[in-house]
Amino acid sequence: MAREEDRPPPGPVDVPFPVGGLYKRAGYQRQPPHTTADCLNVRPFDTLEGRERGGARPGIIKAFTPALGSGNPIQLLAPVSVVATSGAVTRTLVAAANGAVSFSTNGTTFTGVSGTLNSSAPKLQAAEHNQKLYIADYRAVKVSGTNGVIAETNKLSAAGVDWTTLGISTSLDVCLVTGLPDSTYGTGTIGATFGVVTLSGGTWPSWVAGGALVVGGATYYVKTRDSDTQVTLASNLVTIAASSTYQVSKSPDDIFPISAVATGYITLTGTLPNASCSYQIGRRIKVFDATTNTLSSLVHTYGIPPVGCPLMCTYRDRLVLAGPDQVWYMSRSGDPTDFDYGADPNDVQRPVAGTTSDAGSIGEPITALIPHSDDYLILATANSLWALRGDPAFGGQIEALSREVGILSAGAWCKLPDATVVFLSRDGLCAIPAGGASYPVVVSREKLPRELINVDPPNNVISMIYDSRDRGIHLYIAPTAISNGTHWWLDWENKTFWPMQFANQKYQPYTVVSYAPPIVTTFQYVMLGCKDGYVRRYRDTAANDDGIAFSSHVVYGPLRLAAPGDDAIVTLLAADLDATSSPVTWTLRLADTSEGCLPDSAYAAAAGTWRGGRNRPVHPRGRGPAASLKVSGAAMWAIESVMLQVAPGGRLK
Predict the structure, then answer these.
(1) Dihedral, CA of residue 539, residue 543, residue 549 and residue 552, to nearest 10
(2) The pLDDT of residue 361
(3) What residues make up the domain containing 260?
């Protein structure tokens, strides 16, 4: 039953722009005031003056030239800070496309560097640490097994494996070998003072750093090899009597470069014993050094860093990696090259690894890592959320925030200035309040019951970012196929949703970043790493998407014009646009029901064009108890006001 307040009073009434955004939950007759049943490429704040009166969204322009990666999608956009000798801090923007890495220090152009990343990954993650950008170079594991055999000078073979069919790259791929017998050494005698161990009658082997030194039943961790006769232990409190016998051992398990690929074996570079082993072919972590603008593979000092992890961040001065399974890995605090998980358990800075699951359960693959300063780290799967509080090597604990709601993919989240985390789940858009201690709150289902549920990550690249300038959230769901997807602008202050599409499907972003170019000092731009290899950004004065016009429209209504059983006559329609607004077309549709007045096939009582400034009123004289007004444009436009006058039309026949 229609509400009395839904019907405009006699005389001209102002019909405000539907600043409440798209709403599709209630019935058509109960459409909430100031919302719309249909819109595209519009925002509540116009781009001409930033006033809350509605208009077309801003267009996009190229932010950098030329296109990267031979016109293939941008896989990575990440800033890294560089401190000059003068103390000045600059931000270098690092980009990757088609596996090629580039950087920009001037805010307008990119310069390529030697070295490549995985070209097939649609999105790559990176983490900044001490003027370096650590990049999670990964791809699906090409082959792994437990039936490997090392023989004939570093040749790895495995029954049933034809190595030439796997597309192994000797320049990009590496082999993780585990399960090898320990290397041991015990020649001569030792003594130690304050953790410094001196060897007599022997020479410390080259591999001793990271090894386990056993003396009289006690085990000590060897931190460094200082010389042929001296090593330093992890603890400086250790004293060992002179002329003590000992044994030091260390597993030769490691990551080895691949020098050759043959049908029955691959040849590894390094020193390996002839023995059975497990193996895994993958990619190792890459490092972009912003002080030299060079790219290299991570050279680990201790332990073995994980291979093929797609997720990366920093937390409590540790490099954190995770995926594609349920295991997460952390480097030593302060040292992203140390992954020795066998280090002294009393060392509170030691590397740590764990899983996201309850005791005795097998966890789901981790899909996202979200650090918040040094307080907590959120680890997400597609169907659960976990919070690690504190340092896992110093009393930190992990707890479940939800066992039903998770995050779809690595880029499907963003953090707001107040530390609220907003993310896309199978159940739509959700939020975790600051503190990361409460159950996630569903944001979108109350207004959009179907639009944002069950998004398919394998077929879509999802990116989210908070726009501090416009105080809203960009949500991009870019199809991996050649098609134009629907993306979203969320006005966070008002929790309103605004769908959008780009003028060209190649302009859809695979990665986004907030970045202030050196030529701009007042605010940060949201940079879009697009499918065609260009980095673009929004500009308020851009009337199109990089030279291609995009269409925009908004529907006022449905508006209830009469009481149940009554008819109505629209006697006047008038509108004022911004003085500099581009023209818009409009169509007034009338029908017997609120649902019936929305389709483009509904009866058009009047139509026309409005131009910038004041427009002459029209007198439609159309009949119908329900109405909708569709306004469409193809450039920059903004509506100041719409006036509507309705007269009684008697009983509905």
Answers:
(1) 90
(2) 60
(3) 145-181+253-282
